[in-house]
Amino acid sequence: MPSSSRIIHHPVPDPQPAGHSVKADLLLVGVTLLAALGWLFSKQALNEFPPLLFLGSRFLLAGLILVIPGHRALFRLTLSQWRVSATVGLVFGAAMSFWILGLFHAHSLAEGAFITSLAVVLVPLLSLILFREAPPRVFWIALPLAVAGLALLSLQHGFSPDPGQLLFLAAALLLSLTFILNGRAAARIPALALSAVQLLVVGLLCLSLSAFSEDWPQAFTPTMWLWLGLSLTLGTAVRFLLQTYAQGLTSPSHAAVIMILEPVWTTLLAFLWFGEHLSLPQMAGCSLIFSALLVNRWQAVYRLFVRRPSDG
């Protein structure tokens, strides 16, 4: 499942103490691995689950879990805050609906992970179109790299992109809009309450769409419960809990770089679990997209790997 990118909306603070930074970095690497495992768990679940039913069940249950610690913050929300939270949840729900349908039709998890990760590259473009916010200069380098990577992935046999690729691209576009709206909403709404409302809205939206478009199974098998449980706990609850904790221990520049490891882990797990192999054009396309992610976060990369503390 795509990572939360609330980190891209925060200014870069002073570096944290070295011990905290190492601990946070290790935790964030674990978070990216859990996010990649979420792709694997979800793909396995789709062998028996209708896509929207699976996603709706996963998010609704996760939202109900968050209601327990967040019920006081939820009661304190104003009507306007409820409306804003629900609106972000609807956009997020649309994004995740495209994502799960893309995963259902996908022939390659690696492709899907890299295409979906383009959401962070598209944020400056949507911010320019919707809010007239000038993008950073590195965006104009990252965008051509991303487009070239997409071309290599989708134009291998002429202009005939795979349905799964188109669905992942639609998910990336909507996720980028979600990141923008979420960043604005998080400035005035408690994070726990905002997250709980979003997850509940996504769950209810997907279950509603599923009720009208999918045939539900008569009963849940043990394997269905297994993959749903792993997706709900490790892939969602534990992952976001660790991510929130780790981001509080380090600077966003560290987190921003480490979080782009998710599609790399997904590629490795897809190879180990499903035996996926990427062709040369696919590897080149994924490499260009990864380069676009690095360029897009060049300031963070520079702070982390290039500029030393002695440089001032």
Can you characterise this structure?
This protein has 312 residues and is an all-alpha fold. The chain contains 13 helices and no strands. Helix 4 runs parallel beside helix 7. The radius of gyration is 19 Å and the shape is globular.
Keywords summarizing the entry:
312 residues; mainly alpha; 76% helix; globular
The count of helical stretches stands at 13
Coarse morphology: globular
The helix/strand order is HHHHHHHHHHHHH
- Helix percent band: over 70%
Largest sheet: none
Radius of gyration: 19 Å
Describe the secondary-structure layout:
Blueprint: H1 18-45, H2 51-75, H3 79-105, H4 109-116, H5 119-131, H6 139-154, H7 163-186, H8 191-213, H9 222-247, H10 252-258, H11 262-274, H12 280-296, H13 298-306
Helix pairs in contact: 1-9, 1-11, 2-8, 2-9, 3-7, 3-8, 4-7, 4-11, 4-12, 5-6, 5-7, 6-12, 10-13
Condensed summary:
With 312 residues, the chain is mainly α. Helix content is 76%, strand content 0%.
